[in-house]
Structure formats: C-alpha cells, structure tokens
Amino acid sequence: MAALLEMKGIRKEFPGVVALDGVDFSVVPGEIHALLGENGAGKSTLIKILAGLYTPDRGTVVFRGEQLNGLSPQQVQARGIAFIHQERAYIPYFTVGQTLFLGREPSRGAGLIDWPRLYRKASEELVRILGLEIDPHAPMESLTVSEKQLVDITKALITNPSLIVFDEPTGPLSEGEIERLFAVIKRLKSQGVTVVYISHRLDEVFQICDRATVLKDGKNVTTLEVKDATPDGIVRLMVGKELKEKFPKVVASIGDPILEVSNLCRGHVVRNVSFKLRRGEILGIYGLVGAGRTEMVRLVFGADKKDAGSIMVEGVPVIINSPREAIDQGIALVPEDRRGQGVIVEMSVRDNVTLPSLKGFSRAGFVASRRERAAVQNFVKQLNIKTPGIDHFVKYLSGGNQQKVVLSKWLCGSAKVVIFDQPTIGIDVGAKTEIYRLMGKLVSDGAGVILVSSEIPEVLGLSDRILVMYRGRITAELSREEATPDRLLFYAMGGGVADVQ
Amino acid sequence: MHTGAENRPIVALRRPLLKWTFVAEYGTLAAFVTMCLVLSAIAPGFLTFDNILTILRQISVLGIISLGMTLVMASGGIDLSIGEALDAGALVSISLIAAGFGAVPSILGGLAGGLVIGAINGLLVAGFGVMPFLATLGVHSMVMSLEMVYTRGGLPIYPYGGVPASFNFLGRGFIGPVPFPVVALAACLLLFYLMLHRLTLGRYVYAVGENPEASRLSGVNVRLVTFGSYVIASVIAAFAGIILASRVSSGQPLAGEPYLLDSIAAVFMGRTVSREGKASILGSLVGAAFLGTVMNGMTLLNVVFYMQTFIKGALLLGVLALASYARTRRT
After folding, report:
1. What is the DSSP letter of A254?
2. Which of B218, B220, B224 should one mutate to test binding to chain A, selecting the residue with the greatest count of A CBs within 10 A?
3. Residue B215, Cβ neighbours under 10 Å: how many?
4. pLDDT in tens, B229-267
C-alpha cells in the first residue's frame, strides 16, 4: 500500500545534542500507528518537524505525494494533518462554540459574526463528529480535562483532516475518560482517518494500535506489527542493552530510617504512596512523564497540599505543610525546574546560597555579611562552582553551575534528606559527574538521598534501591541487584499492574 | 599571542567614543550631574546653600513616599493607593489636632490611618491573591471617595484653635540650619537603606519580587513579606502626609494624588542607576532628587508654569529612553 506519510532520513541537531539521526517514519492510510521510545528518544522532535515547528537539517517529509519541507504550521494543517497535544492552550472564558470556530466564525458579512448559526453549527459538529452532547454555550474553563480534549479533537476534525497525531493524549485523563478517548479513536479509524499515536504506556498500544515504530536515542530501532509483538519484546527494543555513561557509585553504610512516608495522597495524581529512606542510602524513583513522581516529592517537601498521609523524620512524626517546615526538619528539594524554582536567576550566587538559612547568618535581623561571604566562598570552592565572584548573578552561570548553587543552598542549611528531582536535565557531562559525586558525598556523610529520574542509566547507576511509579502509585520496589532496564520500563509502563488485573 | 598583541591597536580604533556599558550604569547619574552644572551656570541663585536646602525640603515628601514605593516595587508589586495613605496620615492627624488632641496622639493616629490602608492592600494581595495593580487601584478609588465625603466635597480641614507648635515643628521646624522635613527624609533614608540592603527582610523582599515560587521553596514566608511591604509603605506614606499637613497647618483632601506618579517615576529612574536594574533606596533618592531639581530649576528660570510639567516629562523620558537603550546595547 502506498504510504500516506513518508518521512525519510530525518536529521535534527540542537546545540550539543543530535536529537534525530537519519530517522525514517512511514504511515499507511487507515492505520493507527504508535510512535514509541523512552524520554528523549526523539518522538516529540519528529512530530514537531512534521508539524512545521522545526526545520530538519536533512531529510524529506512527503504527505500524499506532496513535499512538506519548509511549510509553516498553518500550511501543514491546511493540507490535512491535525495535532492533538497533551495540554493545549485555550482561552478560559471563551465558550465551546467560540473555541471551535475561532478564526473561522460564520459571518453575516461586514465582519459581523452570525452567533445563532455559530452555536447551531457547533452543536451539530459536536454530535456529528464524536457524538458529544456538550452545551456549546458553556465556557471552556467549566469543562473537565477530558471534555476540553474532546472539544479540541472536534475542533481539529471540523476541517476533515486525513491524518491526526495524538501526542501523549492520556496523560491527564482518568481510566474512564481513557476508555472514552479510545472509543473516539476507533470511531475515527472506522471513518477512514489515519492516526499517529504517541505514548509510552504499553497497554494502550496493545489496545488500539496496528503498527508501532520504536525510536531510541534519535535513531530507528524497528517498525513492527503490534499483533506479532509482546510487551517484553517492545521494552527490550526501547531500552537497548548498552549503558554508556559511568556513574561514580559510592557505597555508604546504610543505617536507620531517616524518612518514613505513609499513605501519601493527592487527588488521583499521587495515590497511597508509602516508603522508607535510610541513612546513607540513595533511593531512586523511576517512572515515565506523568507518573506522579514530581508531585509526590513535592508533597514530602510541603510544596503542595496533601489530601492524606503522614511523614516521620528519624522516627519522630512531623507535620509538614509548607517548605519552611520541611526545611526545618532537614528536608531539601532540588526541583526539576531549576531556573524557575531552584534558583533566583536575577540574584547573586551569595543571595541564592544563603536564602533558606539566612536567619543563621544574621544577628538581630542584620545580615552578618562577613560570615555569610566566607560561608558562600567556601561552597564555591568546595563544589567547584565556576563564577567570577559570589556577587555575580546566577543568570550568567551555566546550567551545571546553577545546579551546584541549588545544592549549596541545602548543604549550607545542613540537610539530612535531599530530594533530587531530575537533577541532571540540561547539564553537560562533566557537571553531571560532579553532581553524582556530591550525591555520593551526601550519603557517605550520613544523609539520605532521593533521586527522581527519567534516565534509566542514571537511576540504575546510582541507586541502592529503586521504586517505580505508574499513574500515581508505586508499582514496584527493586533492589540494586534486581533492577534491570527492562524491568524498570516494564513496571513504569504499568506492566505489573496489568498482571494483577 | 603575538598576533593578538599586534591586533590590539586596530580594535582600539574601532571602539566607539561612547561606551554603552558606561551609559547603562552611570547615565542617569551623569544626566543628573550635568543638569545641576547647567543650572548652576544659567540659573541665578541655584548653587547656593539656601537653595539646596530648599530643594531638599521640596523633595522631602516625595522622597519619603518614594522609599515606600521602592519597597513595594522591589517585592514585585506596585501601590497605586500610596497617595491616599499620605492623605490618611494628613487628614487623620489634623482632625485629631482639631479635636484637641496633642501632637503625639495625633501623629500616632495619622500613622494608624496609613497602617489600615496598607493592611487592606496587603490582605488583598497576599491573602486573596488579587493583582497588586488592581487591588491598590480599588483601594485608591475607595479612599479618594471617602475623603471627599469626609471633607464635604473637598473642603480643607483647618483646626479652629490653630496647630500646636510641637506639631508644627514637623513641617516648619529647623534643626540648626536644616529644615526638619530634610532631617526626617535623611532618617527615613537610613532606616529604609538598612531595611532593604542590610536586614534579612530586604533580602527576602528582593527574592519574593524576583521569583515568589523559588522563594517559597527556599522557605521564605512569601505572604508575610508581601503583606509587610504594603503595610510599611503605607505607614511611611502616612508619615509624609503628617509632615505635609504640619507644613500647611491644615488637612488638604486629595493632596497625595500628585505624588503617586512622581514616586513611581522616581523608582523607575532609580532602577536605571543600579547595575542590574533593580529598585534601590539610593537609586530612588536620585530619581526623587532629579525630579525635584528640575522643578526648582524651572522656577528659578521663570519657566511658564504650564510648561513645567511638560519639560519634567520630557527630561524624564529622555533619561529613561537613553538608559533603557544603553542597556540593550551593553556588552
């Protein structure tokens, strides 16, 4: 069968990374084609190239025999390709009808909008396309996440596209809503629409997809028929075998529990999470995007409000309702969004490092400048932070050095439990190794470390024990010996849960 | 290495005469100094001890209010009701004087008036999460209306028995040759300088102003810092209002309004003085002094009254445009 979409030899390089290296991707009419791969495998880059958001360095994109290279996103959509993103921007106070026809409102002429006709058409299209009975007069903000997504799909389908791309559509949805989305996708297929489905949840792929293309590190691994494949097999293809980077694992003597978390809950994002962290231990937490890892550690740190759950530090129950209370208990968080939450870029290295512990550097409210400067100088030297001086603004430092500033903040306050959330994102290899060494130093000094990471080699290389999260729950606990890439990914994709069911 | 040394003169030849980095960092100060020099040359009596004291006295109220505005803007907000906090200080204190209270209870009463306005602002912004611009705009319009009701349509309040000398001292007294308002400005400057640049509180204020979420995750009590900024700003504005009331021995409704935009202008101008473009106490002082000196100079030069605000606006824009442009060109 002739391909509907043919992407050939796509290469895309970003400063310092080759995101795609000669990728081929071919979709035949009428199929549901899964695009699979770990975080960072190149899925989103490939789709952004298709959408006209990125220009490939090399390679061609051909859709229905026409070359799409160099077209703008609007031109690509006009040729019949629609994109459903995980989180789409919408105008909260616009009604469903206004949203559906934004930019192509039916007109009475002279620039006047024909409102009755707009709302009548909106109702018709909602029913015709997806069988939805949503009031077109309802404002967008009053809809549930799932309803918004369905409106979004309807909007995309009004123009009768022949290819529709779903990018991780089930992330924010509940089980029931996912069922509904799948019914919609199957309905689209029966109407002859071709679907590209991006996900890293294996069960979904087996439920609805016909074929799957697996990417790894920006390269094609294979394209296969889903009915001939097994979940284990696909996982192995996604992970590959080689672990390239080196991890300076420090084996510290593991002592008493330093942090005990029980039955932590928040909405359906974090469900009943319990675990223990011991002195001298690095506890890895692995999961895919949307598994609830960040949300979970934010609860431990008091950054968000928990619905239920209790926390003990060194065997003593503590109340943590704010970051301040967590900090006072010796808990520290190195957040995922470094520039947004970790450092204050418009302040100096000194201001940043002592911010959580400033009280300790003050007398009667006055900052003890000399003592503060000496302490910060010491951290700059000890952590090898590359900065012209401690009064230099953090925005001028590289990502790795900014991360060391975040770490200094917590070392300065002598934290007992340090939570690292994706600590090495966007950091060069040299600085990565230094951050790993600092983690090692923390545990050998008797602290406990929680390492949240999406990078399997990192989790495997550094952790003494690994918890795997899937949809807000801990689905597996593996010791360093038990853990393998296949197993991590298997549980992270809900493998264990499917077995239980 | 050799080639680098040989190339150096050529590079030097290409160097522009005016360094943008210098303009970005010292442009506003240079403009201020230049203006003073020009006025000294052309305006009779500008560079005299008495006139300098006059300028300082004239900017004392604006200077003090600008300190409060600096604090609020450093914390990431803005206070559009700062003029009404000034009015509260003036009207409450003068009403208490009129009712026969002494200077001390009247002053405390005036400060309390400012405190109430600051607390409402702080509650709206820090407690309810209303945007600072809108919260203080609402308070601005409500208090203005109350003032008109209280003064029966804008009639100034003149205490029947006159104003006691102890209260009068605030606006009209001298310490040595220096008018008391100038002493008050100096004292407030020192106080705010310590608060914003030496105390832990100041560090928290800037942190919250730059990135409230990162501050919260560093254990800073963001709400308390925000609330406190509004309260302190309003109290200090009320203090300025009391000085003003003492100076004119009466309570003038809506007297604070002109100070709102001038104080914002002073803070913004002051930001161009700081290397990283931050609101700072000394910067705002330069801003307030700039505005005050322009007005003084024009009076000395007998510039037509209705042209004065035009020229003030033009000079302000000129300095801000130059400093902002220099910042984009800075290497």
Report:
1. P
2. B218
3. 27
4. 999 999 999 999 999 999 999 999 999 999 999 999 999
pLDDT band, residue B2 (cuts 50/70/90): very low
CATH code of the domain covering residue A481 = 3.40.50.300
Q: Which of A303, A324, A347 sits opposite B207 (nearest CB)?
A: A347
Side by side, which strands form the sheet with A5-14?
A: A17-27, A5-14, A58-63, A66-67
Report the SS3 class of residue A166: strand
Q: Which of A221, A207, A198 is nearest to A50 (CA)?
A: A198
Range of the domain at A228: 1-77+195-240
Residues in A closer than 8 angstroms to B220, CB to CB, are 324, 355
Q: In this structure, is residue A87 part of a structural domain?
A: no
Distance, in angstroms, between B186 CA and closest chain A CA?
A: 20
A22 and A65 together in one domain: yes
Nearest to B221 among A324, A335, A342 (CB): A324
- Going by pLDDT thresholds of 50, 70 and 90, the confidence category of residue B5 is very low
Q: What percent of chain A has pLDDT over 70?
A: 93
DSSP 8-class letter at A139: B
Dihedral, CA of residue B35, residue B37, residue B41 and residue B46, to nearest 10: 80
Average pLDDT over residues A459-475: 93
Among all chains, which residue has been given the structure tokens 């008493």? A256
Question: Which pLDDT band, with edges at 50, 70 and 90, does B16 fall under?
Answer: low
Q: Residue A1: what pLDDT?
A: 58
Which residue in A134, A188, A190, A135 sits closest to A164, CA to CA? A188
- The residue in chain A having the minimum alpha-carbon distance to the alpha carbon of residue B195 is A366
Residue A245 pLDDT greater than 60, yes or no: no
| Model ipTM value | 0.86
